[in-house]
Design a protein that fits this description.
Residues 1-29 form the signal peptide. The chain is an alpha+beta fold. 18% of the residues lie in helices and 45% in strands. The chain has a domain at 132-160 and 192-448: Beta Barrel (Porin), CATH 2.40.160.40. It has helices at 2-22, 25-31, 40-84, 132-141, and strands at residues 149-172, 176-202, 205-223, 232-242, 246-254, 262-270, 282-287, 293-298, 309-320, 323-334, 337-339, 352-355, 359-369, 374-385, 389-392, 398-399, 405-417, 423-431, 439-448. The chain has a twelve-stranded antiparallel β-barrel with strand order 1-2-3-5-6-9-10-13-14-17-18-19.
Length: 449
């Protein structure tokens, strides 16, 4: 019995010695206790405290090794991504100090399945670019400043149909109409080719040039021809010519932040390069016995308004991943101009001056970037024209009745990136007011260098 006790005591002494060699001096100083004055239960409690101290030391070392392994794994993955071309000029994560958590490295397809929210220009707090679909939406609805040169070819079809009932007579006994009833119908199909060039001067300035070319076919129909309510006359007029070209500049006033949208100011000038509508002779197709003109059509189709026009607008974009909200407001003012003839009668000349009314525009919408290539946009645009005025030579200014208008449209567009440089943009517009085209369909192909 005495021998067994001596052996057990010797084993405990050796265990304490080995723990003393493994632990730091401070830890051993805290856990060491004199053994010659301790009873057997006290010695067992001291051994438990020693083992617990050793376990805590091993856990601390293990946690430090895990942090080092994670840091090393993050550096290896970042280096592999750089070599594979998935990142450019991204610095490797710095090694954390001992006891500090390692830096998190965001990777596509990580366990969270989320991506960082980008603002209108793609900023996530780092120098990261927005997705291609977001840039394409901004190019169409706002402005993109990091594209050096973009050339855009577009084709737009617009359909316009307007009917008007004309009563030429009087009511007898407040119930019977005596006179002529004529139904007039104007149908217009317009095909517009538009060439646009957009050049980024700096991170805050872009320069834009738009040159349209219009081809138009207009069908004029008139009921009650020859005084008969059952007779209908029809005449078609074709025409094509360059439209009014415009030059504009975009200036980014306020970049997007977490609390405000990206705000861009646009100033532009439209030149009267198209064929103006003033003085175009009408061809008389039908006259009454008293030489009253019942049916006449223009000899050619206008493609511009004939005025120098200054445009000023503000557009804003706010990114709320995955939606992009955008809006715009603007005004256009035309300078007055003299013309040699304001009358449509080929037998007379009526010179004078024309002052078009201001044009006010308002719009807004939302776009959704489905993926890197595809996006969908829904928008509403409203255009209000004030009345125009004319002043015959030597006379006073007179307002032109019916020259004001209100054109509101609802638009739905889809953009799709064909390749690294080319994008396909499609837009469908539906007229909401009588002055707006019934339907418009646009296809644009911008090419970015």
């Amino acid at each position: 019995m005495i021998g067994n006790r001596n052996k057990a005591r010797l084993g405990r002494t050796l265990l304490a010695a080995s723990i003393a060699l493994a632990l730091p001096a401070g830890a051993w100083a805290q856990t060491a206790a004199p053994t010659n004055t301790m009873s057997a239960p006290e010695k067992e409690q001291a051994e438990v405290r020693t083992l617990m101290a050793q376990l805590q030391a091993l856990k601390a070392g293990y946690a430090d090794q895990v942090r080092r392994l994670r840091d090393l794994d993050a550096q290896v993955q970042a280096l592999e991504a750089r070599l594979a071309g998935r990142t450019t000029n991204q610095p490797l994560p710095a090694r954390p100090a001992p006891g500090q958590p390692p830096q998190q490295v965001a990777r596509t397809g990580d366990a969270s399945g989320t991506q960082p929210i980008r603002n209108a220009q793609g900023s996530t707090g780092e120098d990261a670019k927005p997705s291609r679909s977001v840039e394409d939406v901004l190019q169409q609805e706002h402005a993109v400043f990091d594209r050096k040169l973009t050339l855009e070819n577009g084709l737009t079809y617009a359909r316009y149909d307007r009917k008007q009932l004309t009563l030429n007579g009087f009511l007898a006994l407040d119930a019977i109409f005596l006179g002529n009833i004529a139904v007039e119908n104007v149908e217009s199909d317009t095909l517009t080719y538009n060439f646009a060039a957009r050049y980024g001067l700096s991170p805050r300035w872009t320069l834009n040039l738009d040159v349209p070319y219009l081809a138009r076919r207009t069908t004029y129909q008139k009921g009650g021809a020859g005084g008969s309510a059952a007779a209908t006359a029809e005449q078609k007029v074709f025409g094509s010519h360059i439209g009014d070209a415009s030059l504009s500049v975009n200036y980014r006033m306020l970049p997007e932040t977490a609390s405000r949208p990206d705000t861009v100011l646009t100033f532009g000038v439209t030149a009267p390069t198209g064929r103006h509508p003033y003085g175009i002779d009408w061809r008389v197709l039908e006259r009454d016995n008293d030489q009253f003109v019942r049916f006449a059509v223009p000899s050619e189709q206008p493609t511009g308004n004939g005025m120098w026009t200054a445009n000023l607008g503000v557009s804003m974009v706010k990114t709320l991943d995955p939606a992009i909200l955008f809006g715009n407001i603007g005004i256009a003012h035309s300078l007055s101009r003299d013309f040699n003839d304001l009358d449509n009668n080929p037998d007379t000349l009526n010179p004078g001056r024309v002052q078009l009314g201001n044009v006010y525009t308002l719009g807004g919408g939302v776009a959704f970037a489905f993926n890197e290539r595809t996006s969908l946009s829904l928008s509403f645009n409203d255009r209000i024209n004030a009345k125009a005025r004319v002043r015959p030579r030597g006379g006073d200014w007179n307002s032109v009745i019916g020259s004001d208008g209100h054109a509101a449209t609802f638009n739905m567009g889809v953009t799709y990136a064909l390749n690294q440089h080319t994008t396909l943009v499609s837009l469908l517009g539906i007229g909401l007011t009588p002055d707006a085209p019934d339907v418009t369909l646009s296809v644009k192909i911008p090419y970015t260098f």
